[in-house]
Specification:
One of its GO terms (biological process) is cellular response to virus. Pfam families: EGF_CA. Keywords: Disulfide bond, EGF-like domain, Glycoprotein, Secreted, Signal. This is VWCE protein. The protein has about 220 residues and is α+β, with helices and mostly antiparallel strands. Among the domains are: about 45 residues, Laminin (Ribbon), CATH 2.10.25; about 55 residues, Laminin; about 35 residues, Laminin. Helices cover about 10% and strands about 30% of the residues. The strands form eight sheets. Strands 5-6-7 form a three-stranded antiparallel β-sheet, with no helix packed on it. The radius of gyration is 35 Å and the shape is elongated.
Length: about 220
């Protein structure tokens, strides 16, 4: 019995010590400033601000090491080369391009994907990006730009671009919401005249109030 009493007293002392050292102690949490995350996203090169947010510009992504937008993206892959700028590869042979040619194979420069189903696999040629068509050349199968202006109707001038096209309108006209047709620009909204402005198709005309005449610059009133 004396031994048991000693053990009980020892356990009680331990519990009392634990409670007295742990109770009532508050560990304040370190709170980061609310603007910390936002400020960090806006630091470094190649940062764009669409709307009210912020992020890497198109063609760039965050570098894991620095957390800054310094890692270029090559949408078509660089094969055995390295991506040195958005959609620009440095190839092993020293050439630069949107991608690097792979060793000759059945699928051309974009290599092969494996399509597997029911336990069997077969090689399938990769397709070209939108705005490009696959063509056989002296150097093998290549993806070449499609000239959309051959089949696209622009009310103004059609300008072919790599992977797409753009419609442009002449002076005094602006592109409509459909990005193909042109509409008259109301120059009078920019208040180019000192007194009165009359819009016309493709142009405008200034006039003055009674008691004034139009200056030689065709905009001011004297």
């Amino acid at each position: 019995p004396p031994v048991m009493l000693v053990e009980l007293l020892f356990q009680a002392a331990c519990v009392s010590l634990f409670l007295s050292s742990g109770q009532g102690r508050v560990y304040p949490a370190r709170k980061k400033p609310a603007s910390f995350a936002v400020e960090r996203r806006r630091v470094g090169p190649h940062v764009c601000f669409p709307g009210s947010g912020s992020g890497c510009c198109p063609g760039w992504m965050l570098s894991p090491g620095s957390g800054k937008c310094t890692l270029p993206l090559c949408s078509f892959g660089c094969g055995g080369g390295s991506c040195i700028a958005p959609n620009l590869c440095m190839c092993p042979d020293g050439e630069q391009g949107i991608t690097c040619p792979e060793p000759p194979g059945t699928c051309g420069e974009y290599g092969c994907d494996l399509s597997c189903n029911h336990g069997g696999c077969q090689e399938v040629a990769r397709v070209c990006p939108i705005g490009f068509s696959m063509a056989e050349t002296a150097n093998g199968v290549r993806c070449t730009d499609i000239d959309e202006c051959q089949s696209t109707a622009c009310e103004g001038t059609c300008v072919n671009t790599e992977g797409g096209f753009a419609c442009e309108c002449g002076a005094g006209w602006e592109l409509s919401a459909d990005r193909r047709s042109c509409r008259d620009t109301d120059e009078c909204q920019a208040t180019p005249c000192q007194h009165r402005c009359e819009n016309s198709v493709g142009s405008y005309r200034c006039s003055c109030r009674p008691g004034y005449h139009l200056h030689g610059n065709r905009h001011s009133c004297v």
